[in-house]
Specification:
This protein folds into two domains: 321 residues, 3-Layer(aba) Sandwich (Rossmann fold); 274 residues, no CATH class. Strand 6, helix 8 and strand 7 form a beta-alpha-beta unit. The protein is α/β, with parallel strands linked by helices and 657 residues long. It has a nine-stranded mixed sheet, with helices on both faces. Strands 10-16-17-14-13 form a five-stranded mixed sheet. One of its GO terms (cellular component) is cytoplasm. Its EC number is 2.1.1.296. It is an enzyme of class 2 (transferase). One of its GO terms (biological process) is 7-methylguanosine mRNA capping.
């Protein structure tokens, strides 16, 4: 092992950061290293972090400190260089870290000769860079090996999960939705998975490799990182032990090991493996506590003697080692803040970069021997532009009524000054292949997530059709001022409403969307509209809103309703305020897909009702096509809502925009 020297930035402090826990089925019986006791290191780290806090509290110092730590991270530019010089796509720090791990531990990809296909499962994987680098690595060094992968992450489309808590990049996910698992509630939160669901994931076989790169946002309370992430870690380890095949490998991210509960949990898991290392890649910032447990040679059998005392001692010594490295790096960052020269930084970064290129075999991965296994193009979706850069920190700054009002005022001012394209009447016609999903069986629709059925959510806190900062601010400021267009009560799932029964489906219809109070109402409404269009009774449908609240298209369910109406009508236009949308020029009966009626009936079938409520029932590509128009409708709604309000809070005077 390489000890990190105090108070200086050296290349040796960024490489060879490794600690062996188990080797060839035995605990590494070593005497504790003659280093500073763990308690003393913990106190020292706390003091260093307090110094950082004092620096960042000064005016403009937070920005300069972040720039400094980015500069002293020697591989901060590695993802960009891999893209530009080594023909790698979709790179990130996670990509670089996993590349280092794969090269350092070649046994990870060794499978039994009788196996024709390596199977991997990736927990907490979004945006998908572990998958990307594993693909490149296999195409370079194992070009004749077949590979099958599945993955999980928090669902970036789930309306019940705040954008603060997840990565919203969804290009890898939407390319192969059938490979991604979001759980019975469709959120992707693995802490909610039960054993029955986990068992269903191995119906087609266990996995040779499992990775878990989960983390939580803890920058507002870094001292609680270990305790806050422990429930997530428990879930990752429990799932991995059920997914792994005998002889398989497991890689998972951990932080500090100060808590005895953390050490006991990890000890119970790693005792199932022959070889276990704790490794901090060069690509991982030296000033954080992140490191990876590399576990190889899995045995499903319960270990006869887990050697709890020895394993606890090893994990304590391991923590002292890595905390010492972290402490030294933070001390070096503090000592060089505002003093280190560009030449010194350049020499330091160049030295580490040379070592990275050598150890990560970058010259080889630039020229893979076969085409990628990931045979789909990564396309950015239009809703990605709604989130903006550094959206997590932006959203977390909106934390009370005062900050919400300030955001709303600034947002409206900027929005009104921005020139937006005026969208009038829109003509829409779907190609036959775009409507093929209407013919698919329910199982296939659920598998590729055209239909998403899951328990209802308590409140919409995330949407693909409205800026995330705006939604968060509106929720904090006045959650009763706006609603989802197709809002409904979770308890209101019975038969059709009296209002729906009173409608006459003929001629030019004006339908009060506020009166459709359940998903059953909306599905019955769509079936009745389809029947009226087929019989050429309906010429136009106008959706109006009679309540004082302002409706938005927030949910994928509401967007799906709009999409289905577009299948039946050739033209639509969005209005805003009380008259929301008008659908005209109904398609000829022969142009209505023959399977549409049975599809709409399936939406209220018992098989789906048992799963909860509908969250979506059209393909993502249809939502993508309609996105600019739905955004335009929502823009009219938020401009109307905000322009007519007097913003007040308990801490501010009345301020009218």
């Amino acid at each position: 092992m390489v000890a990190s020297p105090e108070n200086t930035l050296t290349a040796s402090a960024s490489v060879d950061r490794e600690y062996c826990i188990r080797s060839r089925g035995h605990w590494c019986d070593r005497s504790p290293s003659p280093s500073t006791p763990l308690d003393s290191i913990s106190v020292k780290l706390k003091g260093l972090k307090e110094q950082i806090g004092a620096i960042c509290a000064e005016s403009d110092s937070l920005r300069r400190w972040r720039l400094h730590t980015q500069t002293t991270h020697p591989l901060s530019a590695a993802p960009k260089i891999l893209r530009q010089q080594f023909n790698c796509n979709a790179t990130s720090q996670a990509y670089c870290k996993f590349l280092e791990i794969l090269v350092r531990y070649p046994r990870l990809l060794h499978i039994h000769p009788s196996c024709r296909c390596m199977r991997s499962f990736h927990l907490c994987e979004a945006p998908g860079h572990f998958i990307s680098v594993l693909d490149r690595f296999l195409c370079t060094f194992y070009s004749k090996m077949d590979w099958y992968w599945e993955a999980n992450s928090l669902n970036p489309h789930h309306e019940g999960t705040s954008a603060c808590d997840m990565l919203l990049a969804d290009e890898m996910i939407t390319g192969q939705l059938e490979r991604w698992h979001f759980g019975q509630d469709s959120s992707g939160d693995i802490t909610k998975w039960n054993d029955d669901y986990i068992t269903s994931l191995v119906n087609n076989g266990c996995f040779h490799l499992v990775t878990a790169d989960g983390s939580l946002y803890t920058q507002d309370a870094p001292g609680d990182q270990e305790s806050k992430t422990l429930p997530l870690l428990e879930s990752e380890l429990n799932i991995a032990l059920q997914l792994l095949a005998n002889g398989g490998s497991f890689i998972f991210k951990i932080y500090t090991l100060y808590m005895s509960k953390t050490r006991q949990l990890i000890s119970s898991v790693i005792s199932h493996f022959d070889d276990v290392y704790v490794f901090k890649p060069m690509s991982s910032k030296g000033g954080n506590s992140e490191r990876y447990l590399i576990c190889m040679g899995f045995s499903r059998n319960e270990p006869k003697n887990p050697y709890e005392v020895l394993s606890n001692s090893l994990l304590l010594d391991c923590e002292a080692y890595f905390s010492g490295l972290q402490s030294s790096f933070i001390r070096a960052n503090l000592d060089t803040f505002n003093t280190i020269t560009k030449a010194e930084i350049g020499n330091y970064r160049d030295c580490v970069f040379r070592e990275f290129h050598k150890r990560a075999l970058t010259s080889y991965i630039a020229n893979p021997l076969r085409a990628s296994h990931l045979n789909h193009e990564l396309l950015q979706h239009p809703w990605t532009d709604l989130f903006g850069q550094n959206y997590v920190e932006t959203l977390r700054q909106i934390c009370d009524e005062s900050s919400a009002i300030e955001f709303l005022k600034n947002f409206l001012r900027t929005d009104l000054m921005t020139e937006h394209e005026t969208i009038g009447t829109v003509e829409v016609e779907f190609a036959e292949d775009e409507l093929e999903f209407l013919e698919w069986p329910l199982e296939a629709l659920l598998n590729v997530k055209v239909i998403v059925a899951a328990p209802p959510i308590a409140q919409i806190v995330h949407s693909l059709f409205i800026p995330s900062g705006l939604l968060r601010s509106l929720r904090i400021w006045n959650s009763e001022a706006f609603v989802d267009l197709c809002c409904f009560s979770a308890s209101d799932v019975g038969g059709d409403s009296h209002y729906l029964q009173s409608l006459e489906f003929s001629g030019m219809m004006s339908v009060d969307a506020y009166q459709l109070r359940s998903q059953n109402d909306w599905c019955s409404f769509l079936r009745s509209i389809m029947e009226g269009v087929q019989k050429e009774k309906i010429s136009e449908v106008e959706l109006v809103w009679s309540a004082s609240s302002t409706p938005f298209v927030l949910s994928r369910f509401s967007a799906s309703v709009i999409a289905m109406l577009c299948v039946m009508f050739f033209q639509f236009r969005f209005g805003g305020q009380s008259v929301l949308a008008t659908f005209s020029k109904p398609n000829y009966s022969e142009d209505i897909p023959s399977n549409l009626e049975s599809y709409l009936c399936m939406l209220t079938s018992e098989a789906l009702s048992e799963r909860g409520c509908l969250h979506c029932f059209v393909p993502l590509c249809m939502l993508e096509m309609l996105h600019p128009y739905l955004l335009d409708l929502n823009r009219r709604q938020w401009q109307f809502l905000l322009s007519t309000q007097v913003f007040t809070s308990a801490t501010t005077d009345d301020m009218e925009i």
